[in-house]
Design brief:
The structure holds two protein chains of two kinds. By secondary structure, chain A is α+β, with helices and mostly antiparallel strands. Chain A has eight helices and 15 strands. The two termini of chain A are about 30 Å apart. Chain B is globular and about 60 Å long. The N and C termini of chain B lie far apart (about 55 Å). Chain B is an alpha/beta fold. Classes of the chains: A alpha+beta, B alpha/beta.
Chain lengths: ~300, ~230
């Protein structure tokens, strides 16, 4: 069991409240996943700048003077905003790869949680309310976001095993369920050049979608292809820079409820997660059909 | 009328109050407000009372119901009226997966759609769905009646025993050992009664339905097939 929440805003007036709305939804899903929690938020791009969200088990040591050290290495200014075990680096877009290589060299203990011009990912072990407080998630603004509460089945309860998983620029994926053919799919993807941080099944699904997008497919067709290639139980919610997608396996044991109004599209593993959203009483509420891809893009 | 604010008073207080109602009671009308998708609302009731839930419910609402009439003025989450023994459960909206699963008696009415596995392993319950039902509905259903005014999803009645299935709309596919059967006068009469009790008699006529049942080829041990078991 795990809990998923997601929110795609259509009404820009709600953007300042995205973090608060998602945090409330996330905490409601605590009893579906008390092991760890995470959130991916798309907070919008700044001209010419990219964002790297990084994580360290020893933030006091790793994040000390990291912006200055990166500035020196890249010859370009880098800003850093530290949030507990995570930090968001703003780097010139054309320096993103250089920054990642410099980072690996300067601070080998640091992991990259996400990279892109809009996405930020924060995830940790612990109760969702504690994870949310640690990263001050309720203060975040953005256009869309996805959250996950984890009850681990396929791999260890670690920070890197928490969801969302990001395996491509501005992409992320969360999962309720378990895959049965992830080892085989992982080997195929490694052959195609993807790299993996964990033994987790969900990371394989994320990388699968990233590989398809890299091959030029759109989100819809990448998820369609996944219905053929990924075996097991799943409800996936996927985020991209502009969009938000949902797909359930053909058996569809893993619960999913969606709600749509003029202001938003919302996803919850259970209806409970949606009850505080504005206008939910009059929203169109439905269960996504099995083996059917849904996505919204702006 | 007893009004119970679930958000203020909590689920355990509600269910223990309902479980305390034994035999004859003068507290026969209950209203539950602020359900907000909570789990197990009014599960395990065993008294001839009328309970109205004002909103949508989470997992297992009205599970194991005996005697009570429970109305949900919203949609119901997974496992609504699971293993119902008797009484009536009426849902104004949609029902999630495995509505009425393993139900042994009583009547479950879903005025919207039901998703997958509706009536899975039903054992005597009657289920009337005004809309459509999802895939694998009535899987291994043993007895009782499943009536669907709309369409049915894939693998309807797979590995069916003796439950009867009536569908007015399209059936995407029949499961193993489920076949269409002739509608005889006794089925028309049975259906007329179920539609009436299911508050659907104004919406559909019994003659519009097709009947599905077990071909009875799968569930009897066949000595000739011993080597393949």
């Amino acid at each position: 069991m795990c809990g998923i929440v997601g929110l795609f805003l259509k009404d820009p007036k709600l953007e300042p409240q995205l973090g608060a709305m998602l945090t409330d939804m996330l905490i409601t899903m605590t009893d579906r996943g008390p092991d760890s929690a995470g959130i991916a938020i798309y907070s919008g791009a700044k001209d010419g700048l990219g964002k790297l969200t990084i994580q360290s088990a020893d933030p006091a040591k790793d994040f000390k003077d990291l912006d200055g050290d990166l500035h020196e290495a890249l010859g370009q200014p880098v800003t850093m905003k530290v949030k507990s075990t995570h930090a968001v680096l703003e780097v010139p877009l054309d320096q993103m790869e250089a920054a990642r290589s410099a980072l690996a060299h300067l601070r080998p203990g640091v992991k990259v949680m996400s990279a892109g011009d809009s996405i930020e990912i924060f995830k940790e072990v612990g109760l969702p309310k504690d994870v949310a407080a640690r990263f001050d998630l309720s203060k975040m603004r953005g256009t869309h976001g996805i959250g996950h509460t984890r009850m681990a089945t396929e791999s260890a309860v670690t920070t890197m095993g928490a969801h969302p998983f990001s395996t491509g620029a501005d992409q992320c994926l969360v999962h309720n369920g378990s895959l049965s053919n992830h080892n085989g799919v992982r080997r195929e993807l490694i052959r195609k050049g993807m790299t993996f941080e964990t033994q987790n099944d969900t990371e394989v699904a994320a990388a699968y979608v990233s590989q398809k997008l890299k091959e030029g497919e759109d989100l819809g067709s990448a998820l369609e292809a996944g219905l053929e290639d990924l075996d097991g139980f799943y409800t996936f919610v996927v985020g991209t820079r502009n969009g938000f997608g949902v797909v359930r396996d053909p058996i569809a044991c893993k619960p999913a409820v969606m709600a749509e109004t003029d202001q938003y599209v919302a996803f919850g593993s259970e209806y409970r997660a949606l009850v505080n959203l504005p206008g939910i009483e009059d929203a169109r509420v439905w269960e996504p059909e099995p083996a059917t891809v849904y996505f919204w893009e702006r | 009328m007893q009004t119970f604010d679930l958000e203020r008073e909590g689920l355990r207080a509600l269910n223990s109050s309902l479980h305390a109602l034994k035999g004859q009671t003068n507290m026969t009308a209950w209203e539950v407000i602020n359900p907000r998708g909570a789990h197990a609302i009014a599960a395990g009731v065993d008294a001839p009372v009328d309970i109205t839930v004002r909103g949508s419910t989470g997992y297992y609402c009205a599970g194991m119901n005996k005697q009570a009439t429970i109305r949900i003025k919203g949609s119901a989450g997974p496992g609504v009226a699971e293993n119902m023994m008797s009484g009536t459960v009426i849902i104004d909206g949609d029902a999630s997966q495995y509505a009425g699963a393993t139900g042994r008696g009583g009547l479950l009415v879903i005025k919207g759609n039901a998703s997958s596995r509706c009536g899975i392993s039903m054992k005597g319950i009657d289920i009337v769905v005004h809309g459509n039902i999802g895939h694998m509905s009535a899987f291994m259903a043993q007895s009782g009646n499943l009536v669907v005014l709309g369409d049915a999803g894939e693998a309807l009645g797979d590995s069916l025993y003796e439950a009867r299935i009536f569908v007015r709309g399209k059936v995407k596919s029949l499961g193993a050992d489920c076949i269409e059967k002739e509608m005889r006068p006794e089925h028309i009469a049975l259906l007329a009664d179920l539609l009436k009790r299911g508050e659907a008699d104004g919406k559909a006529r019994p003659e519009e339905f097709r009947r599905y049942g077990s071909a009875r080829k799968l569930y009897n041990f066949n000595i000739d097939n011993a080597s393949s078991y």
